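Example A, followed by Example B.
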Amino acid sequence: PHKSRTDEDRDFGRGRIPTLSMDHCFLGTANNDESAHENPFLVLYDNETEAIFAIAVASKATKEWIVEFVKQVLYELGYSELKVAIKCDGARELQELRRAVANSRTSPTVPMDVPARESKANGAMEKAVRTWAGQFRSLKSHLEYELKSEIPVHHPVLQWMAWWLAGIFNRYAVRHHGRTAHEYATGHKTQLPIACFGETMLW
């Protein structure tokens, strides 16, 4: 059975603010691990809906389009006009990104830092990264099997896959509260059929 909502969950609208965690993720391969570290992914996790978002970034440097992506995530979650907390570790690039997002918002943004060498303090974020990364590797492996060819780490299709996979996960994976993240955030279920990534469609 799914875990029921706790009293803390029910009190969300009475003072508790949503927290968006973020971290960079590197997906290496057995053959080219060094190259993979040149192509990081930014992964975001919402503690309330348990939604996961991800995009490929050319580097960990803060760019305007990355700031806009984080703001778009807040918009999709319904947090644009709300006070939110953004949680990350002490990495300089993440701290800079958080400040840029906060400075571009009209609503308050509360910075939350993960204590150094305290991985349990960011356990939900780390689990979200592992979940997304595992699904990404599985989907990439399936696509390579269908193509009968290995996909290079820097191939544009993997950038699309990163974003697509997170969206599919949010719409179809039932979370501990008994709903998908999309249903939790919007109140609507996703009931449309879906094709596998990379499948040829007759339109």
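Example B, a separate protein, is given below in the same form.
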Amino acid sequence: FINQSKQKKHSPKGIQTKEKILYEALMLFSKQGVQNTPFQQVADAVGITQAALYKYFSGRDELLRDAITFSAERSFSYFFHDKPENLNAKDELLHYIDKSLLWAKSEIPDNVAFMSVHYFSSQISIINKVQEEITNARLKRFKSFLDKGNDESLWNITNTTEKSLSIHNYILGEMMAAFNSTSKDYVTKNLERVCSTSLKLLK
């Protein structure tokens, strides 16, 4: 989601260290809040000095941006790693919805941290910028499903951009409901309803 062209270059070992920094930072941000997490605490969690941390990030804003982006890219790859081949547009859309809810409800540590930081710290400008890029990526994904469905004559949607926004906003709300629910079988109980409502939004 983030333009990588101006980021610092690191050796393979340096890349591994950077990923550890991003992971530990995200964990701390989610547990105690962005404003309450000093650079030194992140360095301590990784086992490096604060001076070494500055070799990777110029400040907390850059670290926060990259931590959210790192987690988003890792998490969103989960949506497609076991997708069956040769699905039509409708089945691709429903598969994506299923994965979205499962991901939001999962207890994978960086997924939980991502949801906490990303959606509950929206007053922070750097998070808003990343959130906008992630939203645009998801909108393009939904639009690709709808355009493909038009090509396959599964539906006849004249404004796929507008419909993509409607379904994106609906699924985002359902993801938050899944994330906040205490029911472990929330997805099982609600998936059929969410899929049915999503398809109705296409009409």
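On Example B: Residues 1-10 have pLDDT under 50 and may be disordered.
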